[in-house]
TrEMBL record:
Keywords: Cell adhesion, Disulfide bond, EGF-like domain, Glycoprotein, Membrane, Repeat, Signal, Transmembrane, Transmembrane helix. Residues 585-636 form the Fibrinogen C-terminal domain. Residues 549-586, 959-997 form the EGF-like domain. The chain crosses the membrane at residues 1146-1165. Belongs to the neurexin family. It comes from the Eukaryota. InterPro entries: ConA-like_dom_sf, EGF, FA58C, Fibrinogen-like_C, Fibrinogen_a/b/g_C_dom, Galactose-bd-like_sf, Laminin_G, Neurexin-related_CASP. Residues 183-364, 370-547, 793-958, 1017-1202 form the Laminin G domain. This is Contactin associated protein family member 4. It comes from Oryctolagus cuniculus (Rabbit). SUPFAM superfamilies: Concanavalin A-like lectins/glucanases, EGF/Laminin, Fibrinogen C-terminal domain-like, Galactose-binding domain-like. Disulfide bonds join 931-958. The keyword Protease does not apply. The lineage of its organism: Eukaryota, Metazoa, Chordata, Craniata, Vertebrata.
Amino acid sequence: MGSVLGALLQALLLLSTQNWSSIEAGDSYACDDPLVAALPQAAFSSSSELSSSHGPGFARLNRRDGAGGWSPLVSNKYQWLQIDLGERMEITSVATQGGYGSSNWVTSYLLMFSDSGRNWKQYRQEDSIWGFSGNANADSVVYARLQPSIKARVLRFIPVEWNPKGRIGMRIEVFGCAYRSEVVDLDGKSSLLYRFDQKSLSPMKDIISLKFKTMQSDGILLHREGPSGDHLTLELRGGKLFFLINSGEARLPSAHSPISLTLGSLLDDQHWHSVLIQRVGQQVNLTVDEHRHRFHAQGEFTYLDLDNEISFGGIPAPGKSVSFPQKNFHGCLENLYYNGVDIIDLAKQQNPQILTTGNVSFSCSQPQSMPVTFLSSRSYLALPGSSREDEVSVTFQFRTWNKAGLLLFSELELVSGGLLLVLSDGKLKLELQQPGKLPSDITAGAGLNDGQWHAISLSAKRNHLSVAVDGHVASAALSLGPEQIYSGGVYYFGGCPDESFGSKCQSPFGGFQGCMRLIAVGGKVADLIAVQQGSLGNFSDLLIDSCGISDRCLPNYCEHGGECSQSWNTFHCNCTGTAYRGATCHNSIYEQSCEAYKHRGNTSGFYYVDADGSGPLGPFLLYCNMTETAWTVIQHNGSDLTRVRNANPENPHAGVFGYVASMEQLQATISRAEHCEQEVTYYCRKSRLSSKQGGVPLSWWVGRTNETHTYWGGSAPDVHKCTCGLEGTCIDSQYHCNCDADRNEWTNDTGFLSYKEHLPVTRIVVTDTNRPHSEAAYKLGPLLCRGDRSFWNSASFNTEASYLHFPTFHGELSADVSFFFKTTSSSGVFLENLGITDFIRIELRSPTAVTFSFDVGNGPFEISVQSPTQFNDNQWHHVRVERNMKEASIQVDQLSPKTQPAPADGHVLLQLNSQLFVGGTATRQRGFLGCIRSLQLNGMALDLEERAMVTPGVQPGCRGHCGSYGKLCRNGGKCREKPSGFFCDCTVSAYTGPFCSNEISAYFGAGSSVIYNFQENYSLSKNSSSHAASFHGDMKLSRETIKFSFRTTRAPSLLLYMSSFYREYLSVIIAKNGSLQIRYKLNRYQEPDVIHFDFKSMADGQLHHIQIDREEGVVFVEIDEDTRRQVYLSSGTEFSAVKSLVLGRILGLIAVVIFILLCITAIAIRIYQQKRLYKRNEAKSLPVMLFMNLEMLLRSCLAGVCIFGGQKLIKPLCLSLYYIQYISSLKNVLLSLAGLY
């Protein structure tokens, strides 16, 4: 029922959104009437004109009157052309031309708009401040569509760039239509209360739309409440809108209560802002200007219990349960509708449903203040003052995002000093500079770079100096002693001209960037229009009568919870604690799968995995079991055995399993995996999984999508059998599950669930344990997933004209592309996607350069990574590119990344519309030859293999992974190719593990030893040596390589002994003094060769490494990789009939043998032998390599050819960490073997 109601609410919300969109848009397709052509001459004005024939009245599109267009007296960035449309209109597009038949045209311009010709606002495209592209000649017309449209009366065109061989010249047209407007002006003490018939309205639905403009940062826009505490409140706080909604018993929020939703910023700029609130039940849409947010309101009810009245501009009715300090709205409201009712029109008609409180007028008053924008650190405003006055008084308001900047400087008379007012780390600092003295300063305020207006008042009279911030006087005002301050003649705001006053006006923080207003010197407010016209003061790089501040953190382009901060020109993202990095916290610091970790060389352990990479899902912790294939192990909270009694269909038992990750994270992980499984063990005694009659389920499990499943481990979803039913091994052949036999004895049905779309198991439900002696128990294993389908997904491109195509890549604000490639070609395009003008392209530009090219409307850019080695070496190389609001970057392998900062106020949306081409281009030129693997766009993998199977010239898959990853196989392990990936073959290594990096080791206790027989040891007579040699093939070794490591503290000790049937041997021992001895006896009739190493004690408990290489009579020995010796043997050159290899103690072979405590951590023996065939007259020889490691020793134990302590055991229990028990049939010998693995 809940889901049905939720779907209904969603549908209602969508419907209301569509209705609002149609109302808001109106007939926008028909709103394209020319608005300038019919205007009178007086509607045109300009900053200046070159001559009477170049006046603004000649600026109509396609007209040739006068000189054929407007041109100013001087061509600079302070010129403008203005059009007054007579009333507010909706403007949808503009068009420009140059001066007729001339070399005068504008190549780029800004567009400003206003309701009154004061307090201008700059039109923004894509939420960034940016000019419009103008003309390339005098007569062609260039159109610019305004999306969104403008509602304004006055437009101003400001040329930014023009033909360098001519002058500024413009002809213009504006297109749009009439705009209907109902306004009401509220003075901060007034409000409107609308009472309505509750029966005619739905308690579940509200749609409220309005526009407002104000200079005040705080005030209540609307409020509605009910008797039980339900309420709706829209309030302006600090220039932001707070929408508060609550259902239930909670009262109106205090200043410290949680806020439901915040949207918008800098809304106190005296410009119109639109608000749309759509509430259906507890589903709420809030739209402020172009920014929309959806959320689910708090509370338990699907509707709000509200009174049949709503107030606008304040809370006028007495007796309301207002628990927070309210401040009424001061400003104008326009086109105010509540559920389709025109509230302002009702108020105009004095409808009794409207209660008016205070002074309300139905026209919007215009602001008296005139802001000025300091556009750069070189901006300044110079205003004259009265010099040599004994009092200095300056007041102004400012707003900025910058932490530092010069606000005011004035040179003082007589004392040859100066007053310096600066912003430093968000605090105000007033400094008095006097020659020969240390500067005196006052610090006031904090956090003044918050974008809000702050009022400053500076006062100096006689010898007393003080400063106030927002009405708070600084705690420590300077007293100057007997000296007195006298005012200077000029006050410099925001900066100083470069050539003035030398170092006195130099601020270490640079100039001020921000807005100022209400500037007054000596109690007289400055006339900024006079400044603009050049009749008062001086200025540089200012925008007068407009505050150009913008909130670069709205919307917040910092992803994954990154914290946004900003300055005047840009924003910054703090990614600390987000698990992401990059300019916008876009890139995950974790891999997407255990497979990816494995191929970085990581071993088994716990890792954070981010399955969707840069997507919205966060990382989570899991266990990676690195075997030949990487296994992902995801635990849950119900791993213990759960027993169930007294459960029936009316009172079922439901075991709920919570995982370490969300369902969305689990789904992403499962989707990437090649295979997933989860073991379910169901123990039962008189507890059935399904009933005998009709097979009605009595127990079931629930999967990821909350669907019920009645198949069990080992079965497919449509088979409904248990493992025993599939294998035909059920205890009762009438049933497909053991438990369905319903026996009064314990049995179980155990198996793995492996249908990925249903995993993981979220609940197990049992209903059949309420009969006598009926009981069940179950145990659910962790979710296990193997491999990564995306990591090895690849395609081979065989011709330059071949490519794969995919749907358009949508990465408007943030886009990342990553992939592996390998090639022998010197160049080729990996990927390309085109728009009308925008594009992205990644290519191998040359054998040593990979290039990322792109255009988002600011002109083409490209960045390249240069490599000291060639990329076309047929090895895998990893490429990752990213483009976001801040920058574009490219990185290849581990080379240093290259970045390209985005233009400060440029276009930001990447708008593509063609297919995405992979391995080639739309022109089928410069295609890529080679392999591309694991291609991902914004964390989503593209299935190259699926598309390659149906594309000529492209083959799915790509071999040759060992060339790049073979180095991961260590210690002699061999890289072996797989259809998807590779594995390390450790057969010829003394190590194991996924990369042959885990040592195979054994611990030898006192008196223990291991013997491996190369050949069976048959009982022979004393005179049967020749017979033995013949029987054993007369195996002779002319060379061998032996490697092993050991650690011991006992001396003397036997490390290794290799013997033959002819009493020849090789022994490695530690002598009594701790020195190492190697003995070779290759001729039984001669004394052995003894090699001594007595440079240090080898029984020091440290790990030592030994390698012995013999080639006939030459032996090379290396110890610990730093001691090397070559010895020539005199006892012979061949091992004849090798018999056995001994590790540890051997009785009767060495005279001095004691108990040893020895840990051999790895051993590898390579024996190269010449084996004579049975026919002695055959000259052909066959080289054979016999390699043994301790894993093979374990196998030999199980095969029954292992000898312990001199006794042959038949299939001994060779178990790690256990001593071999007493075996009476083998002469009651107690053998102990610890740690053999």
